[in-house]
UniProtKB/TrEMBL annotation:
Protein name as annotated: ATPase
Gene source species: Sphingobium indicum BiD32
TM region positions: none
Keyword Cell inner membrane: no
Keywords: Signal
Transcription keyword on record: no
SUPFAM superfamilies with a match to the protein in the record: Bet v1-like (SSF55961)
């Protein structure tokens, strides 16, 4: 199942524009960074981060529908997803937990995302929002450390592509009128 999830992540990520980079890898982890300019106000972009159903790609969810995702943008808040079930007893997953929140400026989560959740790792996903031109620049960094059965170097580029695709989705949603 782990390999199927990894292949799904990789396949869907191939369409993402290359505005991101794996900035470091070692035997114990990796770091990625992506940035995008969004023609919107800082507060609006921050508020949009809290509505992942508007910008997160459906193919990178457990339920197949990003509308099932929520993000409570306050310390301790959950980045969670409901997994509907025909029996009426839905499942759920915690993708991450908010550890730092400054409206209009920065949102940081502790999050081992996707296939990393079944590994022995800790991940920190950070969104920094800075005014730039007629909008903002959003810089997303993701730092992962711990034990990865396949090694950090193998999965880092795939994670980078998938997260960049999400950032591109944030841009599209932020500039939609």
């Amino acid at each position: 199942m782990r390999m199927i999830g990894l292949l799904a992540w990789a396949g869907a990520a191939m369409a993402a524009p290359a505005h991101a980079a794996v900035t470091a890898t070692s035997d114990i982890g990796f770091a990625t960074q992506s940035s995008v300019e969004i023609a919107a106000e800082p507060g609006a972009v921050y508020a949009l981060l809290a509505v992942p159903g508007r910008w997160w790609d459906d193919s990178h969810t457990y339920s197949g529908d990003s509308a099932n995702m929520t993000l409570d943008p306050r310390a301790g808040g959950c980045f969670c997803e409901t997994i509907p079930d025909p029996s009426g007893k839905p499942g759920s997953i915690e993708h991450g937990r908010v550890i730092y929140a400054v409206p209009g400026k920065q949102l940081r989560l502790s999050a081992a995302l996707g296939p990393l959740q079944s590994e022995g790792v800790v991940g920190t996903l950070d969104f920094s929002i800075q005014p730039k031109g007629k909008g903002v620049q959003v810089t997303m960094t993701y730092i992962v450390g711990g034990y990865l059965r396949g090694g950090p170097a193998a999965i880092a580029p795939i994670v980078d592509q998938v997260l960049n695709a999400q950032l591109q989705g944030l841009k599209r949603a932020g500039e939609a009128h």
